[in-house]
Design a protein that fits this description.
The complex is a heterodimer of chains A (about 250) and B (about 425). By secondary structure, chain A is an alpha/beta fold. Helices cover about 35% and strands about 25% of the residues of chain A. In chain B, a hairpin with a 2-residue loop joins strand 2 and strand 3 (about 125-135). With about 425 residues, chain B is an alpha+beta fold. Chain B has 14 helices and ten strands. At the A-B interface, helix 2 and helix 3 of A face helix 1, helix 11, helix 12 and helix 14 of B.
C-alpha cells in the first residue's frame, strides 16, 4: 500500500457543524449534553474525538453519525442540512454516507461474514449478484477473503472487527465513524486494526475515531477534546504534552 | 420498488433463520395457531357439511313442486286462524287434475294426493316403529326424486286398484330384511299384509330431517282402506316451468279457491308452500349454527394470535440491539416493520399449513369412521384457512413490529 506524506487536508468540507446543542430530558431534569459545538471536517481527514465519560463524546458521535438530530444549531453533511431530516431521510444518509464501526462489532450472529457485509447493500437496493460480488471484494480488501462464509462465532475478535469494517466500507461512505473500535480487543489485535484504519486513510477515506484511549487517538492526524459539552481543544496531530496523561 | 423486493426477500430469510434458531419457541407458538386453525377448519367442514345436508334434505321436497296444505310451512303467530281450516282432502287432486287438463296453457303438470301417518311395520321377528307410511298414486314418482335400488314403484293399475303393495325405504328394508331380499316378501302393517315390490335408493338422513330412508309408500286406495282414520293429507302439484314458480302458485291458488268454492271476499283457507319457504325458515338456523360455531372456534385462533403477538414482542425486545445496528446501517422504519411482520406472518402461515394438513387428516378419518357425520372439506376452506392464518400473523405482529420500527436508533444501540 502506498504511503504519502499526509498533512492536514484542505479538501472539500464533509461535515460542517455550527454551535449545535443537545438537551436530554431526564425526568424533571434537563441534561445539556452538548452546549454549542462547532466543527468542520474535510475529506480525507483522520480525526480523533476524545474526552472523559460525560463529556458529550457519545452524543457528538450520534450527531455526526446522523443517528440523532441536534436540539439547536446547524449541521450540514456534504452541503445537505441534516438537522431537519426525518427518520427515513437520516436512514438513507447513514446507509450511503456513513460507515459505522462499533466497539462490540454488532454483527448479526447467525449470518456469515458475507451476509453481514451485504446488509447495507440490501438497504441501498443493490441487486443480489452485485451485492455478493462487492461484499466479497471488500472482505478481501480487509484481509478476510478466505473467511467470507464463516459466522461471527467462528471468527476471532480481530476478524470480527474486520468484518464490521468491511461492512462500514461496502457502500463507499463519505466518513467512517469508529466508536472505540479497539475497546474489546487485546492490544496486539488493536494495533492491527489501527493499521487497517491507517491504510484506509491513505486510500483517501475520512476517519473519525471516538475514543478515550490516548494511544489509539495517537494514530489520528487531528485531535478534538471535549469536556462538559464543549470543545476544549482542537489541534493538528498528536501532542504528547497535551494528549498524554502525564501532561494533564 | 426493487429495494422493497430485496428487503422483502431478506426479511423472509431472516424469518426462516429466526424460526430455525428458536425451534422450541417457534414450535410452541405455532402450536397455538395450529390448534386454532384445526378448530376453525373442522368447524368450517362441519358448517359445509350441515349446509350440504340441508340442501340434500330440501331436495327431497323438489324445487318444482307446490304443496297444498292446511298449515303453512313457516312459524305462525295466529295459529287459531289456521286451526279451524278445513282439512285438505285427497279428492282435491282429481278435481285439480281435471281443471289443469282443461287449461292448455297451464303451468301445472299434475296434482298428486298424499296421506300419511306413523305406523309400525313387521316382518318375521323384526319390527320397525314409527315408520312414515305414505298413501299416494303412481303419479308420485313424477313429483319426487325417488329411485328404487331394487324392484319398482307401484304402477297406475296397482294405484287405481288400491292393491296391497308397498315400496319401502332403504333403512326400513335394512332393518326388516338384514340378510334377505325384501322383494315379493310380505310385511305386516297394522295387521294387514303388504307385498314389497320395491326398495328405495339410500338417501341418507341428516339431523333427523325427513328422509325417504325411513318411509313406506303404498297406493292411496289401500291406505284409505286401512288407515284413513288419523291420517294427514295434502296435495302436491308439479310445476312445468320452475322459473315461473310464482305464476304457478297464483294459478294453483285460483284453482284451489274454485275447489273450495270460496267467494272473492273470503281469504284463502289453505296454504301453498314450496321448498323455498321451508328453506327460508331453516336458513337462519343454519346461519346461526355457522356463526356461533365459527365464533367459538375463532376464540381458540384468537388465543393463538395472542401467543404470536407475545412472542413477537419478546423477539423485538431480545433483538433491540440488532434493530439499532440495522438502523445505523440504513434500515428504514418500513424495513424493520416489514421484517417483524413477516416473522409473525411466516410463523402463522407455517402453523396454518400444519393445522390444515392435520384437519384434513382428521376429516379423512372421521369420514372413514362415521360416514354419516356431516363434514365436507373444500378448496374454498383451504384458501380461507391460509388467508385467515396470514391475516392472524399480520394483525398479531403489527403492534410489536410497529414498536420495533419506532425505536430510537441511539437507545436501541445502547440496549444490552
Amino acid at each position: 500500500m502506498e504511503t504519502r506524506n499526509s498533512i492536514r487536508p484542505s479538501g472539500p468540507v464533509v461535515i460542517d457543524i455550527e454551535t449545535i446543542t443537545k438537551d436530554y430530558v431526564m425526568g424533571e431534569e434537563v441534561v445539556r449534553a452538548l452546549r454549542g459545538v462547532s466543527l468542520q471536517i474535510c475529506r480525507n481527514e483522520y480525526l480523533a474525538i476524545m474526552g472523559p465519560s460525560g463529556s458529550g463524546k457519545s452524543t457528538l458521535m450520534n450527531m455526526l453519525g446522523c443517528l440523532d438530530t441536534p436540539t439547536s444549531g446547524r449541521y450540514e453533511f456534504n452541503g445537505k442540512n441534516v438537522a431537519e431530516m426525518d427518520d427515513d431521510e437520516l436512514a438513507a444518509v447513514r446507509n450511503r454516507e456513513i460507515g459505522f464501526v462499533f466497539q462490540t462489532f454488532n454483527l448479526l450472529p447467525r449470518s456469515t461474514s458475507l451476509r453481514n457485509v451485504e446488509l447495507p447493500l440490501i438497504y441501498a437496493g443493490i441487486n443480489p449478484d452485485r451485492r455478493e460480488e462487492r461484499a466479497a471484494q471488500v472482505l478481501a480488501d480487509v484481509g478476510l477473503g478466505d473467511r467470507i462464509h464463516h459466522k461471527p462465532n467462528e471468527l476471532s475478535g480481530g476478524q470480527r472487527q474486520r468484518v464490521a469494517i468491511a461492512r462500514a466500507l461496502v457502500n463507499g461512505p463519505s466518513i467512517i465513524l469508529a466508536d472505540e473500535p479497539t475497546g474489546n480487543l487485546d492490544s496486539k489485535t488493536g494495533e492491527e486494526i489501527m493499521e487497517l484504519f491507517e491504510n484506509l486513510y491513505h486510500h483517501g477515506n475520512t476517519i473519525i475515531l471516538v475514543t478515550h484511549e490516548r494511544d489509539i487517538a495517537a494514530h489520528a492526524r487531528r485531535t478534538v477534546h471535549l469536556r462538559d459539552g464543549l470543545i476544549e481543544m482542537d489541534h493538528v496531530g498528536f501532542i504528547p504534552e497535551v494528549d498524554l496523561p502525564a501532561a494533564r | 420498488m426493487k429495494r422493497f423486493l430485496y428487503e422483502l426477500s431478506e426479511s423472509w430469510k431472516i424469518a426462516a433463520a429466526q424460526m430455525r434458531s428458536n425451534l422450541t419457541r417457534s414450535t410452541l407458538t405455532a402450536l397455538g395457531v395450529i390448534i386454532g386453525i384445526i378448530a376453525v377448519t373442522l368447524m368450517g367442514t362441519a358448517v359445509n357439511g350441515i349446509s350440504i345436508g340441508f340442501d340434500k334434505s330440501m331436495a327431497v321436497l323438489g324445487d318444482d313442486v307446490l304443496y297444498v296444505t292446511q298449515w303453512p310451512w313457516k312459524p305462525v303467530d295466529d295459529w287459531w286462524n289456521y286451526r279451524d281450516r278445513k282439512k285438505i282432502k285427497t279428492e282435491y287432486a282429481e278435481t285439480l287434475n281435471r281443471m289443469i287438463a282443461a287449461i292448455p296453457s297451464s303451468n301445472l303438470v299434475v296434482a298428486v294426493p298424499t296421506s300419511n301417518l306413523m305406523r309400525s311395520i313387521k316382518y318375521g321377528g323384526n319390527q320397525v316403529n314409527n315408520v312414515f307410511v305414505l298413501g299416494t298414486t303412481s303419479d308420485f314418482i313424477i313429483t319426487s326424486t325417488i329411485d328404487c335400488t331394487a324392484g319398482r314403484f307401484f304402477n297406475d293399475l296397482e294405484s287405481r286398484a288400491g292393491a296391497n303393495v308397498v315400496v319401502i325405504g332403504y333403512d326400513v328394508a335394512d332393518a326388516l330384511f338384514p340378510s334377505e331380499n325384501p322383494i315379493d316378501k310380505s310385511v305386516l302393517i297394522n295387521g294387514q299384509l303388504f307385498k314389497v315390490i320395491g326398495v328405495n335408493t339410500r338417501q341418507g338422513t341428516f339431523l333427523g330431517l325427513f328422509s325417504w330412508d325411513s318411509m313406506v309408500a303404498m297406493p292411496l286406495g289401500a291406505f284409505d282402506k286401512y288407515f284413513s282414520a288419523k291420517s294427514e293429507s295434502d296435495v302436491r302439484v308439479k310445476v312445468k316451468d320452475k322459473t315461473r314458480l310464482a305464476d304457478a302458485k297464483d294459478e294453483l291458488t285460483g284453482l284451489m279457491r274454485r275447489v273450495r268454492g270460496l267467494p272473492p271476499e273470503k281469504k284463502d283457507d289453505f296454504s301453498i308452500n314450496e321448498q323455498q319457504a321451508f328453506k327460508s325458515t331453516l336458513d337462519p338456523v343454519k346461519n346461526s349454527i355457522a356463526i356461533a360455531g365459527l365464533f367459538i372456534t375463532g376464540l381458540s385462533l384468537f388465543v393463538g394470535a395472542i401467543g404470536i403477538m407475545n412472542i413477537t414482542f419478546v423477539s423485538v425486545k431480545e433483538r433491540t440491539k440488532e434493530i439499532g445496528t440495522r438502523k445505523a446501517l440504513g434500515a428504514r422504519r418500513r424495513t424493520i416493520l416489514l421484517q417483524f411482520l413477516i416473522e409473525s406472518t411466516a410463523l402463522c402461515l407455517l402453523g396454518g399449513f400444519i393445522g390444515l394438513v392435520l384437519a384434513f387428516l382428521m376429516c379423512f378419518l372421521i369420514g372413514k369412521a362415521a360416514p354419516s357425520f356431516p363434514i365436507h372439506f373444500s378448496v374454498g376452506l383451504v384458501m380461507a384457512s391460509v388467508i385467515v392464518s396470514a391475516m392472524t400473523g399480520l394483525v398479531s405482529g403489527f403492534a410489536p413490529a410497529w414498536s420495533a420500527s419506532r425505536l430510537d436508533p441511539v437507545a436501541a444501540l445502547r440496549y444490552e
